């Protein structure tokens, strides 16, 4: 007796269905390929444009930096000449100032002002300040400083946009005799203007502009925009913070731009090189049209070939249909009795699925590890620490927590840079992981803070372990060539707190007490209610 109703033979043939399916798939693939290609090329063009813009901005910023370094050096050399003249001979100094101004073209004017503000010499003489006293404003600031000084760009009474550099002048006896002032007229002829003032928009719409420390535009292809405040532009805002980078941004005119920005070390100026996003879209559209023309003929030929092959591939399904038909008639014919290539495909599919699942398992294991580990130090991360502590609280397991912080770590980053600071963190993490028991947990809590979890230890026992580790850290070799120290705070569950937040807070307060008591020490919280902590006596290793 048949287990299936007798199948009717009416309907569309499989070969026709497969042909239609493959034809649709090929056409869909063409469309997907075009979309994917468009998106990929868009990402590539955007990334390339940002990279090129960053490279150009970096070069311009480097040029500005070098120019101001050279200007400062020239001004210093001239100040030394003035200091070395006999009795500060005005004629010789005037000649020297004229020579330096005309040959170097760094400054539009050079002025020697004595300590009272009296102008002894100025080049060019046509400025008209010689013999006058100018002991006010920025001149007074520079005179009072008695050290090299660079002003921010400012509008002079003459209406000029000016930057002023000064160098102190001392006589041979070391007595302060005034300052040498180099004035740069930002919008008039000088080396700086020749490099930055002739900026134009290229055929792609790309251009650069330069901003001052306050976010105002100093150089721009559109001269009408010089002096505009662009502080609302997120790129300019980052430049004011001394940051470099690249990103897509909408400028103050509402135009989407691909902008790269680099700050200038010497004077806190910023350089922004940008390209309109519309220029990228125009390039993409032109490339897409060309790509369609190149792909159309090959895809049509491929479609014909695939249709032909699809019709051939329909043949195995006939055997499967015959088997189903036999089953509908009550005759059982196992699939294994059909043509061998089906078994081969099934075996291949099985192996492929098993391989794919194994790869998924490996990837999942790797993802779990990455999710629970701090990538820099390879210690447990804060999330994992929280999960472990929650489990211990649920089990009411006695344990002690140690929160430690590297003393004066900010100065390490400021002095040696963040990459060196990262190496110090890794060195500390290595010492911590090598100094605890197998059952103990080392975690990076955040920044330069670390957490040690000691299951089963009372606070006094944890104190002994912490002191041993502190002394070991104090002696460890570091990439900065000097020792680092740590301050540590200890709290015990349930002695000092009965919740995770309160326990962490108690240990954190103890750690800050260690900081306040002189750093490089360990402090234990004394009770659940106490808001203060006391320093424990040091014990031997």
Please provide a written account of the structure:
By secondary structure, the chain is of the alpha+beta class. The protein has a domain at about 380-535: 2-Layer Sandwich (Alpha-Beta Plaits). It has helices at about 15-85, 90-105, 135-145, 190-195, 235-240, 275-315, 315-330, 340-370, 380-395, 410-415, 420-435, 460-475, 500-515; strands at about 110-115, 120-125, 150, 155, 160-170, 175-185, 205-210, 215-220, 245-250, 255-265, 270-275, 400-405, 440-445, 450-455, 485-495, 520-525, 535. The strands form 3 sheets. Strands 1, 2, 3, 4, 5 and 6 form a 6-stranded antiparallel β-sheet that branches. Helix 1 (about 15-85) runs antiparallel to helix 2 and helix 10 (about 410-415) packs across helix 11 (about 420-435). The longest helix has about 70 residues, at about 15-85. It is flat, with a radius of gyration of 38 Å. The N and C termini lie far apart (about 90 Å). Mean pLDDT is about 85; it is low at about 530-540. This is Diguanylate cyclase (GGDEF)-like protein. It is found in: Cell membrane. InterPro entries: dCache_1, Diguanylate_Cyclase, GGDEF_dom, Nucleotide_cyclase, Rev_trsase/Diguanyl_cyclase, Sensor-like_sf.
